[in-house]
Amino acid sequence: MDLTSWLKTGKIKKRFPSGPGLPDPNEEKSEVEANSVLAANDAVDAILLKTPTKRKKGEYSAYDDETRVKIARYAVDNGVARAARKFSGHLEHKVAESTVRSMRDIYIKQKKEGVWSVGCPNHWKRHGNSCYLFIQDVPEDFIEAGSFCERRNSKLVEIETADENNFLRVQILGTHPQEGYWIGLSDIVFEGDWVWTSSQNSASFTDWSPTSPDNAGNHQDCAMFWVPDHFHWNDHFCTVKAGYICEMEYEGFGMLAKLYHQT
After folding, report:
1. 41-55, 87-101, 126-140, 193-207: lowest mean pLDDT where?
2. Fold assignment, 125-249
3. Model pTM?
4. Per-domain boundaries in the chain
5. DSSP three-state, residue 31
């Protein structure tokens, strides 16, 4: 059973603090149930605690946007093989022709689709170095909301400062989503350890409502801007359907547009 299925059944278990004087949460569980709990924890770890793959020299993901555009433009004008040779010497490591071909094809495709425009995509709002998309009309649970953002090359919002938090609250005050708006914060792996699910950083800034987080029912493991408390943060059941906020970096759009318009 995958993680989403576990969440929907409400049976997913987390790791709780243990030690002298603390109860063992698995003390009275059967062996079958205990094994199921371990399987669920492993599924959660695979998503929330995954180790980023090390980028290898020569692979597409190893290059920043500016370098990709330069290589792609050269390949369009001079051919893939010549571009691979030129930039292998310039970057002092081998740049594979397959990598150059991917850069060229993506460059041509994006150019045709008109993504080379300054600013955030349509319907996204900019603040600082991020673009934000606010969804309230099609509520989703925490996992599906995160998947929606990922399909748009973004993530559930990670709030790092009071300034960012205030900007987001101003945008959503006066709206009427179901329950609230999911943010990318969860303590589903270890009770009380609130982690941003995309970066896997612990939350250094928080804006909890006065009674939160309270982990009501022992399963309120995901955070949202909460309607009843004027959009301060609240912990809630991850299976609840709510609005959500996606975030992507702003810098790439302006930089890519600038590079394109230099042609």
Report:
1. 41-55
2. Mannose-Binding Protein A; Chain A (3.10.100)
3. 0.56
4. 3-48, 63-118+251-261, 125-249
5. helix
